[in-house]
Amino acid sequence: MPLTPILGPQFKVYRRENFSELMSSSNWFQMSKKRRTFSASFKAKVALEALQERHTLSELSQKYGLHPNQITTWKKELKGGAESVFQRKRGPASGLNKGKEAQMYQQIGQLQFELSWLKKKYESS
Fold first, then answer.
1. How far is CA 90 from the centre of its chain?
2. Domain coordinates of the chain in residue numbers?
3. What pLDDT, in 10s, does the model give residues 86-107?
4. CB 13 within 8 A of CB 6
5. What is the residue-wise DSSP string for 39-104?
6. What is the pTM of this model?
7. Orientation of helix 40-52 relative to helix 68-81, angle to 10°
8. Which of 16, 19, 63, 115 has the smallest CB count inside 10 Å?
C-alpha cells in the first residue's frame, strides 16, 4: 500500500496505518545542513568589495553565494570597526609595558651582581 499524503505534497503528513512503513524507509529523516563559517579575511574581502559599490548587492550575493543581508551586516561591521585601525598612536610604548620593563631591569641588575660576585670568587681562588 503506497503512502499517500493527507494535506498535499508540501505537507508530509501520513496516515497512522502507514507510519511503520514510513519509519522503515531509509530517507524518512534528513539531517539539516551544517552552518557555514567564514574566515575574517573572506568577510573583509566581501565587505570591502561591497563598500566600493562597483557591483550591486545582488551581484555580490550571487558571486559569493551569500544572502544580501549578510553582506550588508559585514559592511556595517567593517565601517564600525575601521576606526580601531587608526586609534593606535605612534611614539613610545604604552604604560602596559612599564611593568615588564621594570621586571627586565631588575633581572639585569641581579645578573650583573651575580657576575661580579663570581668574578671576585674566581680571582680569589
1. 28
2. 1-30, 37-87
3. 777 666 656 667 788 888 999 9
4. yes
5. -HHHHHHHHHHHHHTSS-HHHHHHHHT--HHHHHHHHHHHHHHTHHHH-PPPSS--GGGHHHHHHH
6. 0.48
7. 90
8. 16
CATH of domain 37-87: 1.10.10
For Cα atoms 103, 107, 112, give the angle at the middle one, nearest 5 degrees. Answer: 150
**Does the pLDDT value for residue 19 go beyond 80?**
no
Helix (H, G, I), strand (E, B) or coil at 111: helix
* Residues contacting residue 70 through CB under 8 Å, at least 6 positions apart: 61
Cell of 19: 507510519
Terminal Cα-to-Cα distance of the chain (whole angstroms): 106
Q: C-alpha distances in angstroms, 119 versus 106, 113, 122? A: 20, 10, 5
Distance CA 118, CA 110 (A): 12
CA distances (Å), origin 65, targets 40, 60, 69, 85:
16, 8, 12, 29
Segment holding 118, helix H or strand E: helix 98-124
